[in-house]
Design brief:
It is built from 10 helices and 9 strands. By secondary structure, it is of the alpha/beta class. The chain has 2 domains: 64 residues, no CATH class; 177 residues, 3-Layer(aba) Sandwich (Rossmann fold). Strand 3, helix 6 and strand 4 form a beta-alpha-beta unit. It is elongated, with a radius of gyration of 19 Å. Its EC number is 2.1.1.297. Keywords: Methyltransferase, S-adenosyl-L-methionine, Transferase. InterPro entries: HemK-like, MeTrfrase_put, N5-glutamine_MTase, SAM-dependent_MTases_sf, Small_mtfrase_dom.
Length: 254
């Protein structure tokens, strides 16, 4: 049971720490705490800049509650565009590459229970988290090297929410991301597309005929991303969602 005084103190501490939505966050923390002492500890973690989702151990994403652990990338609302686009495809084999917590695959499977889902990530903490969320078919390794060879030529949808922040922009990210999320989940190299180019170069070996690669990009990366996929035999379309402030490239293997 959380006392009124403890909740009020939590709001004040979160305000002092610069949390814009202090009252809302205090309510979320209250739900996660068993007593005043536990609330105090959770508020202390949040006040030091740890993402709220890591503090409480979950994030709401795409209509599902995703388990999260400290140090695991927090799924962004804008990435729901990738799920929305994938959900319109015919059901089949789906791979969530650079899966992090497995949020994209989990949200897609809720909408399309007919899919056969596989996921992979390089970070062992992310893999453990994704396994807790997805219950199997989660692999650890570097991009396609993590996947079983039996998936070659059989992937109908390849969700690849790869790191796409240019290295020079990392210092300007919010402290929550810089200090509490793995750099490997953020750093996309000189122009933010280094990992994406690696995925584009190998995608045709893994996609089925008509299979689709879907990745999140920025507006400034559009031309270079299109060049990356068309240079490896894929056709490219760019989709945007103003409500989500999101942009994605869809690359199909014909």
């Amino acid at each position: 049971m959380i006392s009124t005084e403890a909740l009020a103190t939590a709001v004040l501490r979160l305000c002092a720490a610069g949390c814009v939505f202090a009252e809302d966050e205090a309510e979320v923390l209250r739900e996660a705490a068993v007593d005043d002492g536990a609330l105090d500890l959770l508020v202390s973690r949040r006040a030091t800049g740890e993402p709220l989702e890591q503090v409480v151990g979950w994030a709401d994403f795409g209509g599902v509650r995703v388990r999260l652990s400290p140090g695991v990338f927090v799924p962004r609302v804008r990435s729901e565009l990738l799920v929305n686009l994938a959900a319109t495809e015919v059901g089949g084999v789906v791979v969530d590459l650079c899966c992090g917590s497995g949020a994209l695959g989990l949200a897609l499977r809720r909408r399309r229970p007919d899919i056969v889902l596989h996921a992979a990530d390089l970070d062992p903490r992310a893999v453990a988290c994704a396994r807790a969320n997805l219950d199997g078919n989660v692999y650890q390794g570097d991009l396609f090297r993590a996947l079983p060879n039996t998936l070659r030529g059989r992937v109908d949808v390849l969700l690849a929410n790869v790191p796409y922040v240019a290295t020079r922009h990392l210092p300007f990210l919010p402290a929550e991301a810089r200090d509490h999320e793995p750099r490997s989940a953020l750093d996309g190299g000189d122009d933010g597309l280094a990992i994406f180019r690696r995925v584009a170069a190998e995608a045709s070996r893994w996609l089925s005929p008509g299979g689709l690669l879907i990745s999140e990009i920025t507006e400034a990366q559009t031309t270079a991303a299109i060049d990356a996929v068309t240079g490896h035999g894929l056709t490219a379309t760019v989709m945007t969602d103003d409500d989500l402030d999101a942009r994605a490239i869809l690359a199909r293997y014909l």
